[in-house]
Amino acid sequence: MMTTTNSISGDINKLSNRDLISARNTIDKEIDTLRVLEQDLDESLTKALDMMQNAKGRVILTGMGKSGHIAKKIAASLASTGTPSFFVHPAEASHGDLGMITEDDVVIAISNSGESKELVDILNYSKRFGIPLIAITKNPQSSLGKAGDVVLRLPDNGEACPLGLAPTSSTTATLVLGDVLTVAMIERNGFTKNQFNQRHPGGKLGSVLQKVSDLMHSGDEMPLLTEDANMHDVLLEMTSKRLGCVGFTDGSGKLTGILTDGDLRRCLSNDILNKTGIDVMTKNPKVISPSAMASEAVKLMHEKKITNLFAVEDGKPVGVIHIHDCLNSGVV
Predict the structure, then answer these.
(1) Helix (H) or strand (E) holding 321
(2) Do 106 and 52 contact (CB within 8 A), yes or no?
(3) Predicted TM-score (pTM) of this structure
(4) How many Å apart are CA 260 and CA 243, to the nearest integer?
(5) What are the residue boundaries of the structural domains of the chain, listed by start?
C-alpha cells in the first residue's frame, strides 16, 4: 500500500514539474516576443499617435477572431482614458455597420497575418472615403499592410503554442502594443484622475476615486453656528443635523473650531448651559479640501482618530464629511 502511495506521489510531482517547465517556457517565449516588439518600435508609432490625436471623430478598432478580442480590449482602454473609441466587427461591417465609421474617424485594423478576408470591406471603405487607416500586422507586405497609411509591425517571432498555431505570443504582443497606444494618448491628452473617475462611476474604481465634494454634507445639511452661539442652540444643531458634531465660525465666516459629541461628553458640567461655542470648541480643527480624494479624508480621520472633517475653501466651511459616508460609499 505504501509503495502504491509513493508511486502516485511521484507521478504527481513529475506532472507538477512538467507543468511548471511548460509554464516558464511559455512565459519566456512571450517575453522574447515583447523584446522584439520593443526593439522594432520606430517613427511609425509617432505617426499613428498623431493620426489618433488629430482625429475629429473616434478611433475605430476592428479585427477578426482572436485579433478581434484584443481589438475590443484596446477600444475599451482608449475610451475609458479620454480617447473616444469603439469596436466594429468586420463581418457585421459588411452588412451595414460600415455606416458607423465616418470620415472624421481613424481606423485601426488588426490581423497577425494581414490577410483576414473579413477585413476587405473595411479596408476598401477606408480607402474610398479617405479615412486614415492604421494597420497592425506582422507582414507589411500583406493586404492589410499595403492598405495601411501607417503600419505598426508585430514581431514575426512564432507562437508560444507548441503547435505553432494557436495565437499566443502574437496576441500578447498586440495587447501590449494597444497598451502602448493607450498610455501614450493618456500622456498626450493630459488625461487626469478626475476625468478617469467620471468614466468609472461604478465598482471599486469609482469608489476609490471619489472626492470629498462627492460625499460631503453641504448647505443646510452642515451643522454650523457662530462662535457666540449658546449651548442650547449647539445641542439642537448637533442633534438635528445628526452628524455628531458642530462647526463654529468667526465674524468673517471662517471655521475656527469644532465640537464633537465625544468632546461634549468630556466637558459636561453643571454650568455647561451657561457656556457658548467658543468656550467648549476645539480650536483650529483638522480640515480638508473639497477637491481632495475621499481616501485622503479616510486616512486623515484614521490617523487623528476622529470621525468628522470639515471641507474648507479659503478658510470657510463648504461641507462636512463623516467616516460613515466614506465607508458606506466603499472608500477604504
Answers:
(1) strand 316-322
(2) yes
(3) 0.65
(4) 9
(5) 2-191, 212-328
Q: Give pLDDT tens digits for 162-183.
A: 898 899 999 999 999 999 999 9
At residue 5 the predicted structure's pLDDT band, cuts being 50, 70 and 90, is: low
- Check if CATH label 3.30.70.260 holds for domain 2-191: no
**Sheet strands (E) in 78-202:** 85-87, 106-110, 133-137, 150-153
Task: Please check the confidence at residue 229 and state whether its pLDDT lies above 80.
Answer: yes
Task: Kindly write down the DSSP assignment for every residue of 45-96, as one continuous string.
Answer: HHHHHHHHHH-SS-EEEEESTHHHHHHHHHHHHHHHTTS-EEE--HHHHTTT
CA atoms within 13 A on the CB side of 92: 10
Instruction: Tell me how far apart the alpha carbons of residues 109 and 151 are, in angstroms, rounded to a whole number.
Output: 10
Q: Give the whole-angstrom CA distance, residue 180 versus residue 177.
A: 5
Query: 38: part of which helix (H) or strand (E)?
Result: helix 2-40
Pick the CATH number of 212-328 from 3.40.1080.10, 3.10.580.10, 3.30.70.20, 3.30.1360.70: 3.10.580.10
Contact present, 117 and 101 (Cβ < 8 Å): no
Distance CA 184, CA 53 (A): 10
**pLDDT value for 38:** 96
Residue 316 C-alpha cell reads as 470657510
Cell numbers that stand for 212 in this block: 470629498
Determine the Cα–Cα distance for residues 327 and 324; give it in Å rounded to an integer: 5
What cell was used for 121? Answer: 470591406
d(CA 201, CA 14): 48
Report DSSP state, residue 211.
Answer: B
